[in-house]
Amino acid sequence: MANGYPLAAIAGKKEIMDRFNTNTEGDVCFQGTYNAHPLCLVASLATINVLENEGVYEYINELGLYFRNGLREIISKFNIEATVCGFGSVSTIYWCHGPFDNYEDLLKSDSLKSVAFKRAMIERGQYFVPVDLKRIIVTYSHTKKDIDKTLKIAEEVLKKFR
After folding, report:
1. How confident is the model at residue 126 (pLDDT cuts 50, 70, 90)?
2. Do residues 114 and 132 lie in contact, with contact meaning Cβ atoms separated by under 8 Å?
3. What distances in angstroms separate CA 56 from CA 50, 63, 85, 88, one per listed residue?
4. What whole-number distance in Å separates Cα of residue 105 and Cα of residue 96?
5. Is the pLDDT of residue 13 over 90?
6. Do residues 40 and 12 lie in contact, with contact meaning Cβ atoms separated by under 8 Å?
7. Does 140 score more than 90 pLDDT?
8. Whole-structure pTM over 0.70, yes or no?
9. Cβ of 150: how many Cβ atoms within 10 Å?
């Protein structure tokens, strides 16, 4: 919400939210280290402004699709038993074939291959959280050139997964 600055929000029905002591009539204590901290609020407003006015979602969704399609091509090229899934800027690789109708279907994924792939990517300078079923996120700071570099490294790594 504030692009890395400490900020959180809580929301609810008016009759419940009005009970917090941030309201003069409130009878429930509500405290936080950064409550209404000006720097955090300015960061949040700046973040919202960028999100609303710079086409962020379109950009990251396009890069996410580009990344997934590139991974799919590599996996197909090497005939690897894996499925690339995702939506928008979020991607993941399941080290098995679908269909994926529920969470139990995802548990068929080979967690050892998943972690091995992510560690191999880390060793080559691409940080993928080395936990099975953890997502890969494309951010607004990434470029198509970054994605191409990541796909090239992924191809080198996946070549060994045949």
Report:
1. very high
2. yes
3. 7, 11, 21, 11
4. 9
5. yes
6. no
7. yes
8. yes
9. 21
What distance in Å separates the CA atoms of residue 161 and residue 134, rounded to the nearest whole number?
Answer: 19
- Strand partners of residue 84: 93
The torsion region of residue 79 among left (phi > 0), alpha (psi -120 to 50) and beta comes to: left
Residue listed under structure tokens 């070549």: 159
Neighbours of 136 (CB within 10 A): 22
Q: Give the CA dihedral 53, 55, 60, 65, nearest 10 degrees.
A: 160
**β-bridge partners, 20:** 28
Residues forming beta bridges with residue 136, ordered by sequence position: 91
pLDDT at 10 over 90: no
Domain boundaries, the chain: 14-53, 56-159
Pick the closest to residue 94 from 73, 69, 78, 117 (CA basis).
117
- Return d(Cα 17, Cα 11) in angstroms, integer: 7
Q: Where are the beta strands (DSSP E) in the chain?
A: 83-87, 90-94, 136-137
Average pLDDT, the chain: 93
CATH homologous superfamily of 56-159 equals Aspartate Aminotransferase, domain 1 (3.90.1150.10)
Helix runs in 7-160, H state only: 14-17, 38-53, 56-77, 103-106, 111-123, 144-159
